[in-house]
Amino acid sequence: MSEQKYAFSTCLMGEWMVVASAQTLLETLHLETVVDRHAIRLRYTENSVKVDWIKSDLPFNIHAQIAYGFVWICVGEPKKPLFQLEEYAIPQARLVPCGAYGVRTSPLRAIENFLDMAHFPYIHTGILGAEPETMVKPYQVEYRKAIDEIWATECFFTQPLAAPSSSQPQETEYIYRVATPLNAILYKVNTQAEGIIPADVICLFIQPINETQIRAHLLMILDDQISSMTDMVLFQQKIFTQDKPILENHLPLKLPLHQRIEIPTKADALATAYRKWLLEKQWSYGVFSPEKEHVV
């Protein structure tokens, strides 16, 4: 089946999505990539980003902008403005782009994994967690209607190596923010930081190649004046490469939204809120449908 036969997902219409590193586009002036099975061409000209469909004859305009070190596109009219990330503009903060990673998983699985603390001691042993400190303490989850985002606060977890500059274990405070179904942000309080920013910021921006294939774009904004750029990037790359095989072997690859398929626990309060939010949005992209699909 040719690419022209594919429709563009109605769920993705109006959503801001990362499709490339801004630095790469500024250096090459043009590049090609894929979003929801459709190839697009990016061109940087006259101080702006131009985006065209390749081969597809879709009748939708593509809005584009550069923000937070990435190229963002929106197919059709945006549902809302791109979210704010104030820490990015603070001069003394370290801006650490950590690359893009291809992963065979649903965009929603990747976001939900990013929101999960329970796996820290088992997948990120000796870094983000370790036995016997395995309990996820109760935390607060709220839907912020004015900005259409989900936030989780008062999240605490004991970590052997919370950051590249950490010299000893600490109980780390997390704040999770789900800005859109495809973009999540983690605020992580670094007790050894200098107070340049209130917390380190770790961002996961998902580029949906298709419903079970993504490129995960990672960005950190750190209050770390000690570590080298290489050490900071390697730290986050190690975390993500530990998650990658878990995501790729998690069946079904798509995310079930109904509790009868995957039963949540108290530790999954944020994931439960995320799934409920998706249901309320009638979101279907990357969602597992037991009526149509089977787990192999």
UniProtKB/TrEMBL annotation:
Keywords: Oxidoreductase. InterPro entries: Cholesterol_7-desaturase, VanA_C_cat. The keyword Oxidoreductase applies. SUPFAM superfamilies: Bet v1-like. The keyword DNA repair does not apply. It comes from the Bacteria. One of its GO terms (molecular function) is oxidoreductase activity. Residues 104-278 form the Vanillate O-demethylase oxygenase-like C-terminal catalytic domain. Gene3D superfamilies: Naphthalene 1,2-dioxygenase Alpha Subunit, Chain A, domain 1. This is Vanillate O-demethylase oxygenase-like C-terminal catalytic domain-containing protein. It comes from Acinetobacter baylyi (strain ATCC 33305 / BD413 / ADP1).
